[in-house]
Amino acid sequence: MAFVITQPCLGCLDASCVEVCPVDCIHGLLPVDEIRQIQLDGDEARLANMQLFIDPQICIDCGACEPECPVEAIFEEFDVPEEWEEYIELNAKFFES
Ligand code: SF4
Ligand code: SF4
């Protein structure tokens, strides 16, 4: 079991979850430092179609990230709302390569 990041993260990316993850298993297309710089530059439009994902192979299911998310995008795998179930696979697929 792992935690899963779902649709509300899209374009938000404040990365509070990354700060508290003890195993550094939350990542996106860009490094968090770069995301922060884009936000500082006021260029959020560049992040509109991006979100972060949780690597289910590394997540230790501690739950620390879930209460940190300001848009309630993080759920335990068994608790993902039906309309966002595809995100279980999307999170896993992001780390397949
Ligand atoms: S549940 Fe814990 S280990 Fe998994 S992503 Fe969240 S903070 Fe990281
Ligand atoms: S999951 Fe929540 S806390 Fe983490 S980057 Fe996305 S919106 Fe921010």
Question: Could you characterize what this model shows?
Answer:
This protein has a two-stranded antiparallel ribbon with strand order 1-4. A two-stranded antiparallel ribbon has the order 2-3. The chain has one domain (3-94): Alpha-Beta Plaits. It has helices at residues 16-20, 32-40, 86-94; strands at residues 3-5, 26-27, 53-54, 74-76. With 97 residues, the protein is α+β, with helices and mostly antiparallel strands. The protein contains three helices and four strands; from the N terminus they run βαβαββα. The protein binds iron/sulfur cluster (2 copies). InterPro entries: 4Fe4S_Fe-S-bd, 4Fe4S_Fe_S_CS, 7Fe_ferredoxin, RnfB_subfamily.
Q: Which fold name is given in CATH as the topology?
A: Alpha-Beta Plaits
Number of strands: 4
Order of helices and strands: EHEHEEH
Radius of gyration: 13 Å
User: What gap, in angstroms, lies between the N and C termini?
Assistant: 21 Å
The largest beta-sheet arranges its strands as 1-4
GO molecular function, one term: 4 iron, 4 sulfur cluster binding
Protein name: Ferredoxin
InterPro entries: 4Fe4S_Fe-S-bd (IPR017896), 4Fe4S_Fe_S_CS (IPR017900), 7Fe_ferredoxin (IPR000813), RnfB_subfamily (IPR050294)
Keywords: 4Fe-4S, Electron transport, Iron, Iron-sulfur, Metal-binding, Transport
